C-alpha cells in the first residue's frame, strides 16, 4: 500500500525566512515530529548541504526506533527541498515547498512511501499518523519562527 500525505499551513513570514530554518537539517529535531537526531553524513559534491547530500535521522514512530537516511534530490531555496530515502525500513520521499502567499508563506510537506509487505497491515494507521505528524510539524515550525525566544 502506498502512503501519500500532504499538509500545508500559511506562516506569516517571508518564504526566505521559513525555508532557511526548515531546510537546515540541524533544526530537524526542533520541529519535526519524532526526530531525535539528524546528522549530515554525506556532503554534497560542492560541499555542505545540497543535491547529493545525505542526512541520517533517528526517529521514533509508532513506538519504534527508526534510523533512515535521506538523500537530497532537489535543493532550490527558498522554494523546494526534495529528499528520498536511501536507507531505512521503507522507501520514502519527502518534499518541503515554500511559496509566497498574501499573508506570508504557504508551507507544504508531502510524504510518500511504500509500506511494503512488512507494514502492509499497518499502512492505514501509518498514513493517519503521517498526516497528523506533518500537520504538527508545520504548527511547530510556525511556533518556532514566530514566538519570542525565552531569555
Order of helices and strands: EHHEEEEEEHH
Strands, count: 7
Q: What's the story with the biggest beta sheet?
A: 7 strands, antiparallel
Distance between the termini: 47 Å
The whole-number mean of residue pLDDT values reads: 91
Oligomeric organization of the protein chains: single chain
Strands of the biggest beta sheet: in what spatial order? 1-7-6-5-4-3-2
Strand content: over 45%
Shape verdict: globular
Spans of at least 5 consecutive residues whose pLDDT stays below 50 are: none
SS summary, helix count: 4
Q: What class, by secondary structure content?
A: alpha+beta
Explain what you see:
The longest helix is centred in the C-terminal third of the chain and has 24 residues, at 123-146. It contains 4 helices and 7 strands. It is globular and about 40 Å long. The protein is 26% helix and 45% strand.
Question: Would you summarize the structure shown here?
Answer:
The chain has helices at 15-22, 28-31, 116-119, 123-146; strands at residues 2-11, 35-42, 54-61, 64-76, 80-87, 92-101, 104-114. By secondary structure, it is of the alpha+beta class.
Amino acid at each position: 500500500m502506498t502512503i501519500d500525505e500532504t499538509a500545508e499551513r500559511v506562516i506569516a513570514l517571508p518564504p526566505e525566512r521559513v525555508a532557511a530554518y526548515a531546510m537546515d537539517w540541524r533544526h530537524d529535531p526542533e520541529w519535526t515530529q519524532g526526530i531525535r537526531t539528524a546528522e549530515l553524513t554525506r556532503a554534497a559534491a560542492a560541499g555542505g548541504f545540497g543535491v547529493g547530500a545525505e542526512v541520517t535521522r533517528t526517529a521514533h514512530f509508532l513506538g519504534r526506533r527508526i534510523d533512515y537516511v535521506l538523500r537530497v534530490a532537489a535543493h532550490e531555496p527558498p522554494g523546494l527541498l526534495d529528499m528520498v530515502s536511501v536507507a531505512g525500513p521503507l522507501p520514502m520521499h519527502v518534499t518541503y515547498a515554500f511559496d509566497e502567499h498574501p499573508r506570508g508563506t504557504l508551507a507544504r510537506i508531502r510524504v510518500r512511501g511504500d509500506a511494503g509487505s512488512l507494514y502492509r497491515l499497518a499502512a492505514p494507521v501509518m498514513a493517519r499518523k503521517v498526516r497528523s505528524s506533518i500537520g504538527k510539524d508545520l504548527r511547530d515550525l510556525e511556533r518556532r519562527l514566530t514566538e519570542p525566544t525565552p531569555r
